[in-house]
Amino acid sequence: MSMKKQLAVALSIAVTGVVSAANIERTSQSVGILFEVGRYAEFSIGSASPSVSGVAVAGTPGVSSGNMASDYSSVSLGYKQSIGNNFDVALIIDEPVGANVKYPGGNGYLIGGSTATLDSTAITGLIKYKYPNNVSVYGGIRSQSLGGKVHLEQLGSPSYDLTVGQKHELGYVAGFAYEKPEIALRAALTYNSEIKHDFGDVLEQGGASLPFSSTIPQSVNLEFQSGVAKDTLVFGSIRWVEWSKFNIAPYGYGLATGGSSLVDYGNDSTAYNIGVGRKLNDKWSAAVSLGYEPSTAGTCNRTPPATGCTGNLGPTDGSKSIGIGVSYKMKKAKITAGVRYVKVGDAQTSFADFKDNSAVGFGVKVGYNF
User: Fold this and answer.
1) CA distance 27 to 36
2) What predicted TM-score, i.e. pTM, was given to this entire model?
3) How far, in Å, CA of 301 to CA of 298, rounded?
4) Which of 179, 203, 303, 370 has the most C-beta neighbours closer than 10 Å?
């Protein structure tokens, strides 16, 4: 296997089984498929098993929430082909954001029995042009659908329900890259625009409600790699997301709570990943990677109205992770499998402390060169 192909293997392992611990993100929006050789297709499936629980310090002090984060899975497809010597095109279908919240009921926890789901699908079309000096530019259009449901329980108060129908909106992708094939060097910088969803099909408490908007924020990805020795590659990524612009604020919920948002994030996030890939023989390669996302929440002041606290539907703050994986190369196909363990960052909500939580993600990717 050439160093350049080994690069693709290592990067595949790096993103296999990704688990997001600090927000609703499910994929890193990588454009790595654009750099595959010739005509290429891939299929990926991943699953995650989070364990996130806290203990109330107010409302119902000492009561455990139980695990409020349900298992989830995601699927993605990709196709890429070259057009002439300088152009490449790609199509990616994935599930970029999502949420599966389910607080156990009947345990006396203040919001026990509350649930929330968020579902999305994105279709991204990309085109890349490569200049003779190994610099390439690329861009494209992303169509994204988004919808979900929320059911909130609170001891001593009426429940709250929200249903938002799937809404399709458009965004765009733009970036550039530099390659030095003889040492498997590549650096790619990608900008993903924000996508604003104007929801009109809204039900609150079982009846039609006023429209509202929510924005999946803009992001910037830096993906890089380089050969450092024979059959050895280092790789990594830095991803910044403007999560401070994300806000779910239905009209009825805001009216009932004095203008509060159902879900929001107070700060932007930056996630880091670095790893090493190694070719073991002509068929097998392996890689290990480390990930880090700093905590972003400020000091939680629980005096009403609470400030600086994480939300009850996403009580995590930052993460540390380690991922390992292997890849098996056949004549035209490669199979990559990986596992990632995530140490979820501690968080404080308006009435509970969430500590010592974790998640495990698994993934398999099958790629085929035509």
Assistant:
1) 19
2) 0.93
3) 9
4) 179
